[in-house]
UniProtKB/TrEMBL annotation, chain A:
<dbReference type="InterPro" id="IPR012675">
    <property type="entry name" value="Beta-grasp_dom_sf"/>
</dbReference>
<dbReference type="InterPro" id="IPR018298">
    <property type="entry name" value="Adrenodoxin_Fe-S_BS"/>
</dbReference>
<keyword id="KW-0496">Mitochondrion</keyword>
<keyword id="KW-0001">2Fe-2S</keyword>
<feature type="domain" description="2Fe-2S ferredoxin-type">
    <location>
        <begin position="47"/>
        <end position="151"/>
    </location>
</feature>
<keyword id="KW-0813">Transport</keyword>
<comment type="similarity">
    <text>Belongs to the adrenodoxin/putidaredoxin family.</text>
</comment>
<dbReference type="Pfam" id="PF00111">
    <property type="entry name" value="Fer2"/>
</dbReference>
<dbReference type="GO" id="GO:0046872">
    <property type="term" value="F:metal ion binding"/>
</dbReference>
TrEMBL record, chain B:
<protein>
    <recommendedName>
        <fullName>NADPH:adrenodoxin oxidoreductase, mitochondrial</fullName>
        <ecNumber>1.18.1.6</ecNumber>
    </recommendedName>
</protein>
<feature type="binding site">
    <location>
        <begin position="177"/>
        <end position="180"/>
    </location>
    <ligand>
        <name>NADP(+)</name>
    </ligand>
</feature>
<feature type="binding site">
    <location>
        <begin position="221"/>
        <end position="222"/>
    </location>
    <ligand>
        <name>NADP(+)</name>
    </ligand>
</feature>
<dbReference type="Pfam" id="PF07992">
    <property type="entry name" value="Pyr_redox_2"/>
</dbReference>
<keyword id="KW-0521">NADP</keyword>
<keyword id="KW-0249">Electron transport</keyword>
<feature type="binding site">
    <location>
        <position position="41"/>
    </location>
    <ligand>
        <name>FAD</name>
    </ligand>
</feature>
<dbReference type="GO" id="GO:0005739">
    <property type="term" value="C:mitochondrion"/>
</dbReference>
<keyword id="KW-0813">Transport</keyword>
Amino acid sequence: MAFVTALRRVAHVSLREYPWRTAAVTSAAWLTGQRGFTGGTRSDNKVTVNFINRDGEKITAKGSPGDSLLDIVINEDLDFDGFGACEGTLACSTCHLIFTEEVYKSLGPVTDEEMDMLDLAYGLTDTSRLGCQICLTKSLEGIVAKVPESVADIRQSQDGSS
Amino acid sequence: MSGHKMLFSGLKLWTSGRSRWMSRLPDGCSPKVCIVGSGPAGFYTAQQLIKARQDVEVDIYERLPVPFGLVRFGVAPDHPEVKNVINTFTQTARQSRCSFYGNVDVGTDVSVEELRQAYHAVVLSYGAEGNRTMGVPGEDLAGVHAAKDFVGWYNGLPSCRQLRPDLSSETAVILGQGNVALDVARVLLSPLDILKMTDITQPALEALAESQVRRVLIVGRRGPVQVACTVKEVREMVNLPNARPEMVGADFEGVAEALKDLPRPRKRLTELMLKTALEVPGEKEQQRRSEASHAWGFRFFRSPVEILADPERSRTAGIRLAVNRLEGSGEGARAVLTGEVEDVTCGLVISSIGYKSLPIDPSLPFDSRKAIVLNNMGRVQRAAGLYCSGWLKTGPTGVIATTMNNSFDTARSLVEDMDLGTLDVSVVKPGSQSVAALLEKRGVKPVTFSDWEKIDRVELSRGEAVGKPREKLLTVEEMLQVARS
């Protein structure tokens, strides 16, 4: 909502804004190089997430507790076209992900704010969430998240005219 | 590069369209695409093209000295997160295979035909700069504005700078119930303390500070279940500080019963409107509403028939609305006149019934009813090498993500045509070199992306001085002055 957003800006509270993006741009290459590395104590902190992309392929990636699923997609340079357009600020529905019933239940309650944007996602299901709002915890180890087809927000009217 | 290496590269050119050698060959050998318009459609098309083929070079032409189209001039100032896409557009523009040429008016400074000669493919992404008109008497009166122009005014679109909307009357009537209508209502009613922290223009802020508008009616031809706006924007209205909702309960007859059959998104939106219109709020909210100095409400089943003038000043004094009833239900429901009319006193009428694309060249196959360029999956009909994306392709509805998908689609068609040879990219095309020569001859000096970045820095620093994210430059002259400095 405009008012809440303005309030956040005044309080300098950033809801998933893009400092990580700058980090991702400069360190993506490093991360790509490091993706195969699994040894050492640092990886014990990591949580594995399996994405199913739009071609049905399984892409396994890791993130740290506290990272959102969108953070993982960006940090690991996963190639999902148009994913995360608004950079995690609940101003679009392009980080739409679909889960199994069981996993969905474990993700916790959905705020009105998220639901409002989710409502615009193409192919909305009862187990859909926005990836930018789901933060990793150890209990989410190994979950599967499907990246659905992304044709059209429902704000586009059916016959293409206004 | 030695002669031998050139020959080797030449062989690689013909055996593999994706050879990395191609990016090191002289300009003549890479596929060159030109995109007209630098809004989301232009940039998302460019992004996808550059990603899909390592050899493609993309030039984006833009009429204004500044890029980004409706992201800059359409998205409401209090929705800054929606503008985050500018970051990805900036990354695209900074790629070596992408060039931005601002201050170039395609159709006037260079023709579509000249672009088609210079490039292997031309993608038209110049959006919708016109309006759908209401087509009622009094539409040209002072006090009546198209939403596109009002939005352009508060967002600093140079051509709307002189709008000078009259905000001296108590009631404003907005025709149309889409998200643009709600943006206009929200800007008219938002507390100044909020607006002054956004990138709304200084003149708009000053005008709104003097505004006498206290009541905004958002009028639609059909009923609550047919509104084109979405739940986030309605929630923003409901939560607007110092404003209370005023709806007509009778407008919601039968709506509660219809809820159970609605898909979730439409259901949540309708429930919110129903609750706001009919439910008696808790004590605290009742108190807030009674103390609010501003009011807003949807008015349903009403179509404009005439803007009424104040004879002495020949400006808007009111609007005559025809009363409708609904035939059918759901999205296909039709508004049918009942014969009754209703007059509403107001001094400001904003028509928010749709943008409209214009044909920039008479040779383009254009559907004047839908106001789009005739195309199949982005390929312009009967015009090899010509493509379109964005609102020009599908009509002026949808958010940035909609346009993004639509542009990716066009890029896919174009890449497919290049890959399959349907589009012959083996022929050498001069690209920006020949266009630059034409422009120079015509006295047109393009603005590069780094020139825009100078404008950007000036706007950011001027904004910082007054506690805003940016203070936009308001005229093309000022923009060019900074660009050339």
